Amino acid sequence: MTTPVSPYARILFAGPDLDHGSFAELFRKRLAALRGTAALADIVDTTAGYSGLWQCVAEAERPLLVIDLEPQSSSAHLDWLRSELGRLAGPEQLFVASAIGQSEGLPVEAACALIARPELHLPCAGVAELPERHAWSQIPPHHYRVLLCNGPRCTRRGALPLWKSLRTQLKAAGKLECEGGVHLSRTQCQFPCDQGPTLSVYPPGAWYRIRSEADVCKLVQQQFVEGREAPELLMSRD
Known about the structure:
32% of the residues lie in helices and 18% in strands. The protein is an alpha/beta fold. The chain has a 5-stranded mixed β-sheet with strand order 2-1-3-4-5, with helices on one face.
């Protein structure tokens, strides 16, 4: 198998769950088939944080491309990643590309296809700094603080579409980030995973299991519009 010629001295594939588990097994097998077994040394798992990536980039030859495989990547995430990489030596020879949303195939297919698309490679030098003060620097008005788990097991149970539905329904009810309303945040694992997707509400400190659109509707109406708990959705504390 011949690895396609690249203008980069090295290409890193960075993201969570790339060391262990079913996704890692499939990703590594397919990457080796597409780019050869030597490419397996270019995988950087970010499950526990990005310190390993910073070190790997600092030691790698230039020019270098980092393929971002964060499943919840966004424009803000890419700007942060580019800014952090831009603090390292030789930022003018560092580039980032996101493999998320680039194709309907496996992330590894999209990642490898990105290598040949320089128009999608973003430089890490000259990334605009965040302003010190802006409208979003204010604490939004709210009464309830709602934390929806987006940990690995809750995500597998559909937490992400439920998050989107919850935001939509809170906004429709006039309860999103307003006086007497809800400040909604996603979190990593909250536990208890077996009862998830997990959602906690403060006050009153209630923990809910939200598994469907119907559950979201019921929670919004009872807890946030009527101001009372939804007992049939409460998690067992046993």
